[in-house]
Amino acid sequence: MLAEKILEYPTNVLTDAQRAEYFDKGFVVLPKYVKEPWLGRLRAALHDLLERSKGIKQSDGVFVLEAGHSAETPRLHRVNSPQDHHPTFWEFMTDPILTDLVADVVGPDVKFHHAKLNVKSEKGTQSFKWHQDIPGWPHTDFSPVTVGIYLEDCGPEQGPLAFVPGSHNGPLYPSYDDDGYFVGIPDDLVNQDEIELAVGEAGTVVMLNCRVIHGSGINRSDRPRPLLLPVYSSADSFAYTSSPIPSPRCGEIVRGSPARFASFDLRPCPVPPPVRRNPWARQAETAVQAY
Ligand SMILES: O=C(O)CCC(=O)C(=O)O
Ligand SMILES: [Fe+2]
Q1: 290 is a domain residue
Q2: Total Cβ atoms within 10 A of residue 71
């Protein structure tokens, strides 16, 4: 659904000012939006996944490990599709606490696309280089939104999400190298003076539009930075490719009704090369682990 149409609906959760901020800047931060008991349940689910990762020695399609990972000290960069590996995550991602919120920026009919849980363990992790998400999973319009939920407090030293405000109104960058790896956006295209950090206490939510330039630095602190990142779109927005982070739940309508017609935004959207490579296959060589 296009922005003009979305804005015809009243909001459920956001104030008009918060929704205007999302459409103006490409992101909005909602301090301490998720509270107990959800926070405790989500942390317990993360704990279960960390326990499960202890048996893993190499990154695979689910667990992306950080250097130094061991059974004694599990160190995770990311868990792909957490909603398929612990029921609490899917229950949360389909609860009105999120789906009503998402409806405020995509319209009343909401479709799930994929999710990840970026743990960014303490004491030195890979960063997420500057990038836009939509070249990773192009859609017929630009309604897709990622909802980031900080499961623990996140300060500037923990590698919080960082944004170039307003960049969702600029061009989209092709984002892949000649070998089919997602490489994001060159650092020199980003003016360091414009960057805004999204920090906050546990439960703080960041909604980011699929076009906005964002990234995050190395977590050099002694605390992890677990950030749950489900992605949704309007029900009438359709992906051009299969999801790079697959899930049997991709395409599920989590609020309202399925679409009978697709929505089209005529602004160009770059598509991935025919063969995409697994970024985690060369984790040591590149900091890009994004979209
Ligand atoms: O976890 C982060 O800091 C950023 C992750 C991100 O942008 C992505 O996974 O697309
Ligand atoms: Fe991203």
Answers
A1: no
A2: 11
In tens, the pLDDT along 84-130 reads 999 999 999 999 999 999 999 999 999 999 999 999 999 887 889 99
Per-position DSSP letters for 52-87, written without gaps between them: HHTT--S--SSEEEPTT--SSS--EEEEE-GGGT-H
Within a domain: 18: no
Could you tell me the CATH number of the domain that includes residue 257?
2.60.120.620
User: What percent of the chain has pLDDT above 90?
Assistant: 87
Distance CA 14, CA 157 (A): 28
What pLDDT shows up at residue 284?
46
Using one digit for the tens of pLDDT, what is the confidence trace for 167-189?
A: 999 999 989 998 888 889 999 99
Question: Which two structure tokens, joined as six digits, stand for 169?
Answer: 């109104």
Does residue 19 lie in a domain region?
no
Pocket lining: 133 vs ligand 1, CB cutoff 6 Å: yes
Q: How many domains in the chain? A: 1
**What distance in angstroms lies between residue 261's CA and the mean position of ligand 1's atoms?**
31
Q: What is the C-alpha separation between 44 and 42, in angstroms, rounded?
A: 5
Indicate the top mutation candidate among 27, 125, 209, 291 to test ligand 1's pocket, ranked by most ligand atoms within 8 A of CB.
Answer: 291
Cβ–Cβ under 8 Å, residues 149 and 160:
no
Q: Of 57, 117, 125, 111, which Cα lies nearest the Cα of 88?
A: 117
pLDDT of residue 279: 59
Is this structure's pTM higher than 0.85?
A: yes
Residue 113's domain comprises 3-10+27-285
Residue 22 near residue 105, CB atoms below 8 Å: yes
